[in-house]
Specification:
Blueprint lengths: L1 H5 L1 H36 L8 H14 L4 H7 L1 H6 L7 H24 L4 H9 L4 H12 L1 H21 L7 H11 L4 H30 L2
Helix pairs in contact: 2-3, 2-6, 2-9, 2-10, 6-9, 9-11, 10-11
Length: 219
């Protein structure tokens, strides 16, 4: 317990690093995943811009990368990171790897949640003269906003988990803190302090996401 008190400054710094890495990956992966997910939705057969070839290629890419366990993906993307000037270790690499993982996970969540928009709403909009582009970029996201918020909330929770695993490659955050000061030094107080903070972060994110989704769905 005394050792944990000594490490409190490092614990708060690790918490800030976890929030920073998760936020950066969410912004980058969230934007890329939204674009890719909308492309999957729009080009699938029977959708607004059906294109079997484009959908098939995008679908194969997402299905290939999304199931890769993150701890394996960390090692697999190191050569790619170095090729674009990102070091294969550290906080920047952690953001790079988590962004790639989140991008493909988010794209599938976006596609699935947009599919919950009732076909009758789209047909009514087209009958009223709305263009396919207007429906895709304005109507569909608005109608699917509630499920999208819940989907992104799930991803944020997953990102926090990924930041912990990224501690294995010195990506900072609570994962590295728990490994270096808890696991390697056989100090369960330190390890469980990191676990407790992660649980608090996850609970806060889930609560806010659920509350926002409920507000949107009640409109």
């Amino acid at each position: 317990m005394d050792r944990l008190i000594e490490l409190l400054p490092e614990l708060w710094e690790a918490t800030a690093e976890t929030l920073y890495v998760a936020s950066a990956a969410l912004i980058l992966g969230g934007i890329g995943g939204l674009i890719l997910g909308m492309a999957l939705y729009a080009t699938r057969p029977g959708s607004l811009f059906p294109n079997r070839a484009v959908f098939g290629i995008l679908n194969v890419i997402v299905n290939t990368i999304r199931p890769i366990p993150f701890i394996i993906l960390l090692a697999a993307v190191q050569p790619l990171a170095r090729s674009v000037g990102v070091p294969g270790i550290g906080v920047t690499f952690g953001i790079f790897a988590i962004t790639i993982a989140s991008l493909f996970a988010i794209s599938r969540i976006v596609e699935q949640n947009l599919l919950t928009v009732r076909p009758g709403v789209i047909e009514a909009a087209r009958a009223a003269g709305a263009s396919r582009s207007r429906i895709l970029f304005r109507l569909v996201p608005r109608e699917g906003l509630g499920p999208l918020i819940l989907g992104y909330t799930f991803i944020v929770v997953a990102l926090v988990d990924m930041t912990a695993m990224a501690g294995a490659v010195a990506a900072g955050g609570l994962g590295e803190f728990a490994i270096n000061y808890g696991f390697k030094q056989f100090n369960p107080w330190v390890t469980w302090s990191a676990v407790l903070i992660i649980v608090v972060i996850v609970q806060a994110v889930q609560f806010l996401g659920n509350a926002l989704a409920r507000r949107v769905l009640r409109r």
